[in-house]
Design brief:
The chain has 79 residues and is mainly α. It is built from four helices and two strands. It starts with 9 loop residues before the first helix and ends with a helix.
Length: 79
């Protein structure tokens, strides 16, 4: 699975994060690859993923609670 690290919109970022997490949950990628991919995506698109109140509205709506929980745990340890 190939993952871009720069995106032009919040929707693209949210979709990429969802795809990575879904691939991991379906055992198509390993945990380390998922962690690294999420960290790179968030790091390079921080303004599209996180705002002063937490995750942006678009990311919240597109990813859902379960995926946001996973993303939070991963970036918490990285930052």
């Amino acid at each position: 699975m190939e993952v871009k690290t720069f995106y032009k919109s919040q929707v693209e970022v949210a979709n990429a994060l969802s795809e990575v997490i879904d691939a991991y949950l379906e055992d198509r990628i390993e945990e380390n690859f998922m962690r690294n991919s999420i960290n790179k995506i968030v790091e390079n698109n921080k303004d599209k993923v996180i705002n002063t109140e937490g995750f942006t509205t678009v990311v919240k709506q597109k990813c859902g609670k379960r995926r946001l929980s996973i993303i939070s745990k991963i970036i918490e340890k990285h930052i």
